[in-house]
Amino acid sequence: AVDLLTFGEALVSLRSAGPLTAGGALTMRLAGAESNVAIGLARLGHRTAWAGRVSDDELGGYVLRQLRAEGVAVDHVTRDRDRPAGLMFLERRTADLTRVRYHRAGSAGSALSVEDLRPALAAGARVLHLTGITPALSDSAREATRWAAEAASRAGALVCLDVNHRAKLWRRDDARAALAPLAGYASVVVASADELDLVGEPGAAEETTVAGLLARGVATVLVKLGADGARAYTRDGVRHAAALPVTAVDTVGAGDAFTAGYLSGHLDGLDLAGRLRRAVTLGAFAVAGDGDWEGLPRRDELSLLDDLQPG
Ligand code: KDG
Questions:
Q1: What is the homologous superfamily of the domain 2-305 according to CATH?
Q2: 166: Cα separation from own chain's centroid
Q3: Are 29 and 85 in contact (CB under 8 A)?
Q4: Which one of 3, 197, 256, 292 is the catalytic residue?
Q5: Which strands, in side-by-side order, build the sheet including 27-31?
Q6: What span, in angstroms and rounded, lies between the C-alpha atoms of 246 and 225?
Q7: Containing H/E element for 27?
Q8: How far is the centre of ligand 1, averaged over its atoms, from the C-alpha of 30 (Å)?
Q9: Is the Cβ atom of 132 under 6 angstroms away from ligand 1?
Q10: Can you list the alpha helix ranges (DSSP code H) found in the chain?
Q11: How far apart are CA 107 and CA 250, in angstroms?
């Protein structure tokens, strides 16, 4: 068994420093919210696995090589001979503002099905991480996500649902119809403030959605607030965790880092305050460096930010 299993679509991201219309050099990187979380945990020494489908060509080989290099187990990955890699073009306008263009319809990753996930779930995991991106990819990926959440919660794993709404992939109503039921399998739900109602009623206030989630058996709801940190709700009340004051270079991947930090703290048996400190620490490392995950810390680097007081 691994400490953490996650699954989804890993993308090949082609990043440009300026407007894509101006052309110029593109940098090839691995992207994907779930693989970002996997790398965050693997860097901290947790046994971590990623499952999904990758194309059976150089691009799929690139994805696997990156994950292996970061210490993420890929034993249960399916190579798809018929479908291409999912691509993402990312154009940076400011540190906070990036525009994304996907070429992922019909990709290998989007053809994910229950059969792809069965072996990884059977091998066991203490934590199952899933995002609201995967169910947006196809009917079979949506069913696979639901199946995995149910199987893991029945097996006693901690299930973490990371909402991650992608407006380019589906409408909010469709997202809510898929994600609200998924939250019923989760012990931890992570969402940014503007996507929390996708696991509740449309337009509902934060407190109302949180109360509904806690009543359904979710133990912890984490509401991400970007540069303002996060709020953590449990049955004992609410706690605010401020972000650490670092200069933001690239905010893409910060939410994934936050989730990875929180789950790492859980695996280490930290209390809520400790889990939140680990979460904002990983978030700070992610925004301070270029790329989704490249700047994430190894365990011996966690203390580098110890002297920073939450801002
Ligand atoms: O969380 C960062 C992601 O946006 C990125 O890595 C790509 O998973 C991704 C997606 O589907 O947008």
A1: Ribokinase (3.40.1190.20)
A2: 12
A3: no
A4: 256
A5: 27-31, 11-16, 87-92, 98-103
A6: 15
A7: strand 27-31
A8: 10
A9: no
A10: 33-43, 58-69, 114-123, 139-154, 172-183, 206-215, 254-267, 272-288
A11: 27
Ligand 1 contacts CB of residue 10 (under 6 A): no
Kindly state the tokens that stand for 163.
């909402």
Print pLDDT tens along the chain (311 aa): 999 999 999 999 999 988 999 999 999 999 999 999 999 999 999 999 999 999 999 999 999 999 999 999 999 999 999 999 999 999 988 767 889 999 999 999 999 999 999 999 999 999 999 999 999 999 999 999 999 999 999 999 999 999 999 999 999 999 999 999 999 999 999 999 999 999 999 999 999 999 999 999 999 999 999 999 999 999 999 999 999 998 888 888 999 999 999 999 999 999 999 999 999 999 999 999 888 999 999 999 998 888 777 76
Closest atom of ligand 1 to CA, residue 255: 1
Which of 63, 100, 168 to mutate for ligand 1's pocket (most ligand atoms within 8 Å of CB)? 100
Widest Cα–Cα separation across the chain? 53
The residue whose two tokens read 């679509």 is 9
Cβ(228)–Cβ(245) below 8 Å = no
Encode burial over 270-308: b for 16+ CB neighbours within 10 A, e otherwise: eebeebbbbbbbbbbbbbbbebbbebbbeeeebeebeee
ipTM: 0.93
Q: Indicate if ligand 1 lies below 6 Å from the C-beta of 252.
A: yes
The tokens of 118 are what? Answer: 């069965």
Structure tokens at 209: 């959605």
Specify whether 256 is catalytic: yes
Test site for ligand 1: of 98, 130, 252, 282, most ligand atoms within 8 A of the Cβ: 252
